[in-house]
Amino acid sequence: MPAPRTEAGAAPAAPSEPAPPEAASPDPDVDTALFRQVLGHFCTGVTVITAPGPAGFACQAFAALSLDPPLVLFCPGRSSVTWPVIARAGHFCANVLADGQQELARRFGTSGGDKFAGVPWSPAPSGAPVLDGALTWVQCAVQAVHEAGDHYLVTGRVTRLGACRPGRPLLFYRGRYAATDPGTGPAEVVDTLLAWPRHADWM
Length: 203
Fold this sequence. Notes:
Strand content: 25-35%
CATH architecture: Roll
Helix content: 10-25%
Structural class: alpha+beta
Low-confidence stretches: 1-11, 192-196
CATH class: Mainly Beta
Largest sheet: 7 strands, antiparallel
Number of helices: 4
Number of strands: 12
Radius of gyration: 18 Å
Number of domains: 1
Strand order of the largest sheet: 3-2-6-9-10-5-4
Distance between the termini: 34 Å
């Protein structure tokens, strides 16, 4: 399959196959268990990154990166057996999970087996699965892959955006799945947030 191309027509470098992480001396000032505990207090959403095959895995490490051009990033582990499938496909779909899809997150967060067995989905234009019930989805072409410790940092150029359905997102916080509190007051007006003097720091 030919390498994905950008809108300008230049083919990016083909992602390399994952290699075992190199041995590194741990920083004596950073305790691994404490690192996990502290970072666990940073609440994240939950996505399932999919590719034609079908293939997919649950991913917390997903974020918007750039508006111009539209870029996102996600971080698969270097030992992931799903990442090489996505790399070869050259494109992926990030499914944003909704509250109530915890079991789906657990299924795609476990290695082995047919993760798509009994899971309803439809193909995005690229052929990557869009999971039924997801809040929305983002289709991307793999743009660049960087080694980052025991993970890869993958940037993707957005090529298509899905519709957004009503609902609350599935969250992951302190090792547990959670959901946002619907609250009782009025929704915050976006213009109020953008009036913050340093609004350019926000996506």
